[in-house]
């Protein structure tokens, strides 16, 4: 059996792993990347890329159906054929997957090994009957859809984000279990493409991690478009009859009802990819959420670090890449140069229409942690660009401490994820919200909503009697 040695071995070829092995190699480490199946990870093959391609097709379909809103007229009407949507999505996935071929990493001197991996001791793994040892390891094997133990679900069959994009024909109706980002994005996309969608959410509202006001704007939009949202209900039994799947759902008070559709999509959360790794032989402890890591992303084996979904607590590709950078630094450098992980400026987006973007604390979290917080809001309708684009359905909400520093920002509306980037920079560099009002923004843009909102602390300050007195003294007469 052949045995190779490396400075660092990265296990998992997703967003975190690709970034980690690239940085490690650039820093001069002899690096190896081990991936079970193919490079790209869940984001490329089953998550971000196909879902955004599907959402774009759905957005275009929605625009076509709303042509009259833009002063257009089609005398003979229009009929959409969605048969080509899923093949289009798969073409997009294939194109993106070519951006990180094995050969690209091998040209950089990185060894790429494809196959199932397992630890055989604390510094050695086995893949395809070959042994690979390293001074340091980074584990970033990702996650997979969590499947709830619902009676009859396995027998009836179901879809997840890992197989829904393999469909050639969209179902006429679909029951979506889960009102989180994955479930809601796919629900809106499929509804806009002609699928009747029922969303079953066990909690009292969808997108429970989002600010309530922000989430309610999106929820109202989904309902207006025809998505049926059944919140505060859980699926307790599934059975199939006459080519339809029926789900029995139960309310908090015990009342039950039945809903039926052609298929079920399970989107209730994610579970860590731990199977087959033999982590006990590496002295790496874990629980149902994933690997146990400290503030340096170090596992219970001091030579093994972890990033991405397997390490939590946030399951986003950009978070995985951020964590990967920290892992490489802490794995290769002396302790004096180590970096702690920080989620003070955590940011993410749900790419629905309207989009939802989240930065830092929501209102309830800020109220628990700080005294004297201030909240500033602006409707999208105050933006001339939102009016010209017929995108007035939106809200920006910014939370500051009593000194005016940003604690959280939450946006729902067109391009919310892009608009949020400026606020992310301001919060990351500890810039007061009111300072943003001094910046010259391009007109007309949706980003101007940030400037209008940032001006509100100054307007409030101008109403202070003392400020008015000072302004009156220095005013030119």
TrEMBL record:
Summarize where FAD binds, as residue positions: 52, 141-143, 309
Q: Where is the Pyridine nucleotide-disulphide oxidoreductase dimerisation domain?
A: 348-453
| Keyword Transport included in the entry's annotation | no
Note accompanying the cofactor annotation: Binds 1 FAD per subunit.
InterPro entries on file:
FAD/NAD-bd_sf, FAD/NAD-binding_dom, FAD/NAD-linked_Rdtase_dimer_sf, Pyr_nuc-diS_OxRdtase, Pyr_nucl-diS_OxRdtase_dimer
> PANTHER family attached here?
MERCURIC REDUCTASE (PTHR43014:SF2)
Protein name per UniProt: Mercuric reductase
Originating organism: Candidatus Ghiorseimicrobium undicola
């Amino acid at each position: 059996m052949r045995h190779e040695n490396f400075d660092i071995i990265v296990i998992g070829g997703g967003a975190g792993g690709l970034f980690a092995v690239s940085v490690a190699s650039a820093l001069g480490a002899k690096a190896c990347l081990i991936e079970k199946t193919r490079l790209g990870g869940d984001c490329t093959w089953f998550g971000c890329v196909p879902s955004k391609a599907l959402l774009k097709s759905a957005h275009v379909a929605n625009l076509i159906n709303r042509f009259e809103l833009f002063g257009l007229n089609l005398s003979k009407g229009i009929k959409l054929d969605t048969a080509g949507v899923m093949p289009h999505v798969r073409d997009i996935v294939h194109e993106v997957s070519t951006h990180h071929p094995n050969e690209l990493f091998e040209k950089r001197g990185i060894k790429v090994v494809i196959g199932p991996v397992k630890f055989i001791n604390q510094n050695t793994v086995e893949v395809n009957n070959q042994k690979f040892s390293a001074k340091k390891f980074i584990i970033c094997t990702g996650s997979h859809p969590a499947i709830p133990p619902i009676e009859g679900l396995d027998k009836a069959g179901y879809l997840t984000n890992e197989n829904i994009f393999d469909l050639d024909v969209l179902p006429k109706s679909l029951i979506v279990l889960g009102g989180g980002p994955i479930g809601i994005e796919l629900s809106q996309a499929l509804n806009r493409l002609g699928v009747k969608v029922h969303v079953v959410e066990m909690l009292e509202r969808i997108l429970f991690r989002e600010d309530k006001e922000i989430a309610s704007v999106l929820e109202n939009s989904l309902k207006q478009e025809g998505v049926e949202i059944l919140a505060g209900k859980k699926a307790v039994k599934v059975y199939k009859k006459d080519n339809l799947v029926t789900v029995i759902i139960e309310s908090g008070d015990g009342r039950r009802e039945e809903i039926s559709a052609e298929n079920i999509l399970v989107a209730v959360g994610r579970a860590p990819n731990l199977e087959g790794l033999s982590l006990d032989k590496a002295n790496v402890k874990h629980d149902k959420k994933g690997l146990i890591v400290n503030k340096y992303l170090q596992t219970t084996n001091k030579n093994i670090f972890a990033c991405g979904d397997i390490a939590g607590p946030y399951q986003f590709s950009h978070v995985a890449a951020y964590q990967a950078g920290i892992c490489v630094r802490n794995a290769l450098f002396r302790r004096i140069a180590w970096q702690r992980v920080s989620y003070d400026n955590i940011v993410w987006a749900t790419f629905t229409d309207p989009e939802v973007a989240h930065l830092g604390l929501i209102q309830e979290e800020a109220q628990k942690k700080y005294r004297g917080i201030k909240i500033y809001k602006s409707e999208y309708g105050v933006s001339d660009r939102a009016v010209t684009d017929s995108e007035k359905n939106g809200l920006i909400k910014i939370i500051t401490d009593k000194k005016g520093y940003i604690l959280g920002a939450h946006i729902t509306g067109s391009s919310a994820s892009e608009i949020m980037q400026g606020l992310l920079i301001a919060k990351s560099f500890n810039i007061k919200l009111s300072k943003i009002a001094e910046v010259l923004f391009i007109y007309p843009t949706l980003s101007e909503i940030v400037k209008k909102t940032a001006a509100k602390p100054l307007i409030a300050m101008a109403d202070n009697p003392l400020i008015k007195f000072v302004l009156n003294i220095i005013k030119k007469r």
